[in-house]
Design goal:
This protein has seven helices and seven strands; from the N terminus they run αβαβαβαβαβαβαβ. With 235 residues, it is of the alpha/beta class. It binds S-adenosylmethionine (SAM). The site of S-adenosylmethionine has 23 residues, from α7.
């Protein structure tokens, strides 16, 4: 359980980024509106005990991606594994508009989205309901005075531990060494996660079938080296 003292009460607890970027073109705005109607999750109703009822197609496993940016990785994975239901979260309106424009052209029946702080969705989900959580290049907050804003911390790892099934997987990718070390330490302190690393090279080996992300491509162009961590929710 998440200790209440680790969960500050804020309207938007863990989102500190920008909600809006460049002005959205009318066509994209229309795609965003109709896309959110079709793909958006309504958190005002309680979550169903069986998450499968949220999706248009039959799905038997559930995967969450937090902060999907423009959605490139999420779209790739959802198209690749139609038997898994994917939930993507992104509060940045331009990212969500991009995603909805892509879905307008190539719809996916095994995908749902949420356009606000992921902590709200995590608190809405039933316990032990997810097979995996991907946190790919979360906002790095490299300055020490901002480390508290990082998505990984005691409260959110408590949330992950609650919603992941035993044996479920938490994947964390980052190009910021201090955040990688921070996450290893936080998972060790939490105690519910085992780090899966068979050898030292593992750390820098991309996940299987990895399509990359937009943020990652920029980090590599700028000379930073990505790290890919995988943790298993202990039983
Ligand atoms: C550095 S970007 C990476 C985007 C994408 N994963 C990629 O690799 O290209 C981090 C993303 O996380 C989103 N984000 C930040 N805080 C969040 C929160 N509390 N809940 C959900 N998403 C969040 C931001 O809006 C941003 O799009």
């Amino acid at each position: 359980m998440v200790d209440p003292k680790d969960r500050p009460s804020r309207a938007s607890e863990a989102f500190f980024g920008r909600r809006h970027g460049k002005t959205i073109r009318p066509q994209q705005a229309a795609a965003l509106e109709s896309g959110l109607r079709a793909y958006g999750l309504d958190l005002s109703a309680p979550a169903p005990a069986d998450l499968g009822t949220l999706f248009k197609s039959d799905v038997s496993a559930f995967q969450l991606e937090i902060g999907f940016g423009g959605g490139e990785h999420l779209l790739h994975r959802a198209a690749e594994v139609p038997a898994t239901g994917f939930i993507g979260v992104e509060p940045f309106v331009n990212g969500m508009a991009k995603m909805m424009t892509a879905l307008g052209k190539a719809p996916l029946a095994n995908l749902k989205v949420y356009d606000d702080d992921a902590t709200r969705l995590l608190d809405w989900l039933p316990p032990a309901s997810l097979d995996g959580i991907d946190l790919l290049y979360p906002d790095p907050w490299p300055k020490k005075k901002h480390w508290k804003r990082r998505f990984v911390g005691p409260a959110n790892l408590g949330r992950f531990a609650r919603v992941l099934k035993a044996g479920g997987r938490f994947r964390f990718a980052s190009d910021i060494d201090s955040y990688v070390n921070w996450t290893l330490l936080a998972c060790r302190t939490n105690g519910s996660f085992a780090w899966l690393a068979s050898d030292a090279a593992d750390w820098h080996r991309p996940y299987e079938g990895w399509p990359g992300t937009r943020y990652e491509a920029k980090a590599i162009r700028e000379g930073r080296r990505p790290a890919y961590l995988t943790f298993i929710r202990k039983g």
